[in-house]
Amino acid sequence: GLASGLALLIYTELVLVILNAFNITLTLPGIAGIILGIGMAVDANVIIFARVREEMTRGKSVKNSLKTGFQKAMSAIVDGNVTTLIAAAVLWFRGSGPVKGFAQTLAIGIIVSMFTALVVTRLIVFAFYAVGLRKESLYYRPRKEREPIAFVEKRKLFFIISAVLIIAGLAAMGINSSGGKGAFAYSLEFEGGTSTNVTFKEDYSIDEIDEKIVPVVEKVTGDNNVQTQKVAGTNQIIIKTVTLDLDQREALNQAMADEFKVDESLITAENISSTVSNEMRQDAVVAVIVSTICMLLYIWFRFKDIRFAASAILALLHDVLVVIGFYAVARISVGNTFIACMLTIVGYSINATIVIFDRIREELHYQTKKTDLAQVVNKSITQTLTRSIYTSLTTFVMVAILFIMGVSSIREFAAPLMMGVICGAYSSVCITGALWYVMRTKIIKK
Predict the structure, then answer these.
(1) C-alpha torsion 189→190→193→196, nearest 10
(2) Which of 169, 335, 392, 407 has the most Cβ atoms closer than 10 angstroms to its Cβ?
(3) Is 315 within 8 Å of 162 (Cβ atoms)?
(4) Which pLDDT belongs to residue 370?
(5) Residue 349 and residue 353: Cα distance in Å, rounded?
(6) In the structure, what pLDDT confidence band is assigned to residue 186 with cuts at 50, 70 and 90?
(7) Reported pTM
(8) CA 43, CA 164: separation in Å to the nearest integer?
(9) 435 Cβ neighbours under 8 A, 6+ residues apart
């Protein structure tokens, strides 16, 4: 725990130094990339020390367990990070706008996290050992090995749950669309909106704008994705919302006058066009498709089995559809943060899946032709279950704090991301192994 904490501090400092050194503009999608990078940095440490604990359970000494733990964890860490790095590289070169910003910070985060996990954490742990911290109790507490949980045998239940969630999301999109509200609650980045210029009697700080003015605007307009911008050297604030009709504009003007004693004659408003063009949307879709194909090819190459790649991509599609359904049901604004959120979920989910597949591949090396494949899958998922829970929990807590402490636009990013973390953990544990088993035994036997 101490080694992981120190390594994570060093990771964070290195990322900040690199961002500053290369003068990279930090956007909300860029912050999403950093969040995913931190999640993967934590994940790498959890994988390593879970392996160390397994070796100590088998009776090995502390030093041998540490060496073997790092060696066995390397393939899962490298495969998971390289898979996500491939996606980040494609998004960087093929994407534009928010997608490019996300890819830049994600690529930096992945490279630094691999370095800190495989080099810095290793140096710290062996330094602890070298200065005399060698007691087994510091590294390991004896516990009984968990009996394999019957994940494969319960696959029908898991598949039904997933199908219900996806169908419910698609149904919500259809109901919203037929009701005239639109399948999604598109924000002004996608549909354009209204820009209102208000001259206040005092100079509000950015924090005061978020605390005092934005809630009033949200209440009047019903828009939870309000954007504000101060005009330098004046008391003017530009308020950007969804497109407002005449009655809504008058209601907003009246609210400004009642709450802040603003002179209504100094309030001006105009409609603005969307900032996310059709070309940017197409670039984002093409970049995601190309990166998905590249990830599939890499997994196929590394695992020598297309069924691993196919089940991983199907699980990604499952996560994306569930979170899209969540957007439709919860009517969360779809804007720049939507692209960043979906990309974060894809990267997070594929990393968790790779860890489980790496364990299945390892277990298959020790099996004979008579071995029950279902038991292999169940054992592999059970052995990595602690890692899945710890990593999902640490990432979820981090995003939950963003949701609790952030302003409304941050909350609209954090809420679906929390859903994505839960969904990614569920699909990795309950869906991917079962999919691979079905393909291996019933669909694609060769």
Answers:
(1) 0
(2) 335
(3) no
(4) 67
(5) 6
(6) confident
(7) 0.79
(8) 30
(9) 310, 311, 314, 315
